[in-house]
Amino acid sequence: MRRPVPLILLLGPLLVAGCTTDPATPAATPSAPAATPSPTVAAVDYAAWQAGRSTPVADPVYPARGTDAVDVLHYDLALEWAPSTTTLTGTATLRIRPVKDAPNLVLDFMPYQLDGVTLDGATVPGAVAKEKLTVSAPVVADKPVTLVVTYHGRPRTTPMPSQRKDTEALGLTLTKEGGLWTMQEPFGAFTWYPANDQPSDEALYDIRVTVPAGWSAIASGTPAGQSGTTFTYRSTDPVATYLTTLAVGKYQKLTAKGPRGVPLTFWYRKGVDDKLLPYLKKSPQYLAWLEKKFGPYPFPSGGVVVVDSASGMETQQMITMGRKIENTKARRDRWGSDLLHEYTHQWFGNSVTPTTWTDLWLNEGWAKYAQDLYTQETLKLSDASLDRYLREGDAVLRKKLGPPGRPDPKRFAEGNVYLCPEAMLHEIHREVGDKAFFALARAWVQDQRNTQQDRASFIAFVNKQTGRDFTALINAWLDSKTTPKKIAVG
């Protein structure tokens, strides 16, 4: 997610943000009748989705979201959007590996009208209440099943647990023109499909969206063709639910090539987003700079969709950028700088994902540091100015928000999980020098590709990569209530 504290504000005050709306929650939705035996069902080869296998972990920051009892291997989403009635119709086919024996399956899901639920071809009871779908059918650990849920209804959002001023309610959002867009960190994918909505359960995706003539549908993943007014996207690298995206509108498409010929696609509204085209067209430049620092871009395609938001989101392979992110006199390249931040997340956060929201700093610290190093290079700022900015900013944010390693669930993604771990990375950088630091950064994202990581694994990796003991330094910067002083490294 876009960082709220830019280096370019060296001469101005630090800004930290605030809030969202609280949508009404619909009543529980009853579902299908009691289970009936299925006719002959063809055997399913679940090996085809093994790249989507995860080890789910119950999230300690948002325990009501997701479950460690389910590992979704693959989501197949067939969606249709009707702007005239603001109705989303969906068929979600989930290939699931139960992690535990259980009397039912429970997933996160907005209370849409359920039109049918089947498990391995048999009709089973299902109901939605309090943003949970409960499928009343027993499952056995490590015996994969196929869940199919058909549904329809008007999309609704869910509240954002933060006081940032540049965020809106989470999930699938309606536009005045009858379009859609979504941002859903730390959760909110469940507002448009049934999901295990937590970072530790990554899965493969196939998404097909049918829209009226003259409209376009954009989703995360690699574009896989268009048939009539149905747009298809595929993710062959695993994706966390918060990194999926969907946008529908009357978009224009622009294409480009990134480093090594990586295809890039940009979606914008003509006459609305035209002033942002110069930033979109700089994408190959941003990616070339990032590849120089962190190694090859980790996915087969990339791109950006512009939506009516005041923020940005690093949604995998198709970044979701808010049109309302404004340049100001003090921050004359804010939109472009934020876009580079979101591109950095394709390495830090997307390819290597935190196991739980406790370690959001693993995403944001790296992305913010890359962003500020880019700003330092392009504006030719001194090392002393960067040091001063980080130290002064760290002190302010720790005092207001606490240390980054112990995030407040009510203040998700506020400034302390951006700048404070950035300052920690800067200390490691100064300790080991350019060559060793960027070798470490490249190894972290390339060696851990498509995995979930946490503080312990990061510390172990840094110590092994450098041959020195950074444990005390890293823990101090993540846990101290005040800005750490110089810490000796073993």
Automatic annotation (TrEMBL):
Per the UniProt entry, the signal peptide is 1-24
| Aminopeptidase N-like N-terminal domain sequence ranges | 73-243
Provide the top EC class. Answer: hydrolase
Q: Which PROSITE patterns match?
A: PROKAR_LIPOPROTEIN (PS51257)
Q: What cofactor does this protein call for? A: Zn(2+)
Q: Which GO molecular-function terms appear in the entry?
A: aminopeptidase activity
Q: Reaction catalysed by this chain?
A: Release of an N-terminal amino acid, Xaa-|-Yaa- from a peptide, amide or arylamide. Xaa is preferably Ala, but may be most amino acids including Pro (slow action). When a terminal hydrophobic residue is followed by a prolyl residue, the two may be released as an intact Xaa-Pro dipeptide
Q: Say which domain of life the source belongs to.
A: Bacteria
Q: According to its UniProt record, what is one Pfam family this protein matches? A: Peptidase_M1_N
Q: Give the EC number(s) under which this enzyme is classified.
A: 3.4.11.2
Alphabetically list the UniProt keywords: Aminopeptidase, Hydrolase, Metal-binding, Metalloprotease, Protease, Signal, Zinc
Q: Please list the residue ranges annotated as the Peptidase M1 membrane alanine aminopeptidase domain.
A: 281-477
Family membership: Belongs to the peptidase M1 family.
Spell out the protein name for this chain. Answer: Aminopeptidase N
Which species? Micromonospora maritima
